[in-house]
């Protein structure tokens, strides 16, 4: 079958409880979404997979969870107050407000064209800062400028300002990393495409600190490592393109950045427009630790910070050197990862009656529900009692559900559509032979398994 587009995933998500429009009973809020019962399980499984891989399976990464609202100086010295902006233009004809850097340019005269009406009657661009403003305390920012604060636009700065804390308490030596999963907020001008671009999102980030001369090698190691981790999620390498940012595209702090682009838009005719960013891995050099460090002068001509109370340099006892480590930053969003996982898993299959069924072939470790226990006859007390007992017995070790709200064919189809790897059917024979039928989601094959061996059987298959 052809690759599903985002609209297909939107339909499935609303129908089966993966993602709902936020504030829906009040007409919604643009590009805001709530995860439903299945969506929150899938998102949590993705985050747990990442944390296990990034922290538990390595011996050189620690975790933190920093505050969403930080001292305003964090964003002053990081450069966000001055530079975290998009160039905005207005179309004088159709009144649309647009990002200039996202518009097509007419090669004949070099002028940008409105993506809404196609005309070129645009205003001069103005910088629009993407950070959400808020206030701390009872005063307004107008009455007291010190009350001004921001919702963090990225999780990275919370790691940098805790570099010395982690270094001192964990007694780490270079190279080592700090990992964090958390919400970030950006007042995007043109959000959209379901959960692909939203104003509130969750990041999974690592800041990996190393000696400056080791940074190129370490950067490539993380690129290779993320390719392997995406494999474990079922994201095909055929749908991934590595994009090397050119000099004009690089952030001011980056020496090199490689983006992993995923085929989020397979319906587009031009292949290069089918891909957009899934994750980025940047060599941020020593920029962040330097700008957050207290120092009376900076011989390198970089920003001087009189407000910080700490020097975030690193002392190497083996070489007797003090320096600012370089930082390699792999950053990936939970929303986009979840969307890519759903798009990869979505398949359609025709049964022996000629009916087309949706089968969500999620990796078992990511599936929101691992097993559904189904009674063949819901009016048989013995079958129902045994089925409910099996569900309770399985629940501590795996996410299990009991469902008797339809015929067995309909129940199978429902579980296929939400990605449940196995269905366990309790029938009349189960009361006599103490065995159940286990159905595989992907092959639709069935196997008889004794109840005493059921949990071990499922665990081994999961």
What secondary-structure arrangement, pairings included, does this model have?
Elements: H1 6-16, E1 19-21, E2 33-35, H2 37-56, E3 61-63, H3 72-78, H4 80-83, E4 85-90, E5 97-99, E6 126-129, E7 133-135, E8 148-150, H5 156-160, H6 163-170, E9 176-185, E10 200-210, H7 215-232, E11 240-244, E12 256-262, E13 276-283, H8 287-291, E14 314-316, E15 321-323, E16 326-333, H9 334-345, E17 346-350, E18 356-360, E19 371-375, H10 381-394, E20 400-402, H11 408-418, E21 422-426, H12 430-433, E22 435-440, E23 446-450, H13 451-461
Helix pairs in contact: 2-9
List keywords for this structure.
alpha+beta; BirA Bifunctional Protein, domain 2; 2 domains; 5-stranded mixed β-sheet; 28% helix
What can you tell me about this protein's structure?
With 462 residues, the protein is of the alpha+beta class. The protein folds into two domains: 6-70 and 153-342, Bira Bifunctional Protein, Domain 2 (BirA Bifunctional Protein, domain 2, 2-Layer Sandwich), CATH 3.30.930.10; 369-461, Rossmann fold (3-Layer(aba) Sandwich). It contains 13 helices and 23 strands. It has helices at 6-16, 37-56, 72-78, 80-83, 156-160, 163-170, 215-232, 287-291, 334-345, 381-394, 408-418, 430-433, 451-461, and strands at residues 19-21, 33-35, 61-63, 85-90, 97-99, 126-129, 133-135, 148-150, 176-185, 200-210, 240-244, 256-262, 276-283, 314-316, 321-323, 326-333, 346-350, 356-360, 371-375, 400-402, 422-426, 435-440, 446-450. The protein has a seven-stranded mixed sheet with strand order 3-9-10-16-13-12-11, with helices on both faces. Strand 22 (435-440) and strand 23 form a beta hairpin. The longest helix is centred in the first third of the chain and has 20 residues, at 37-56. 32% of the residues are buried.
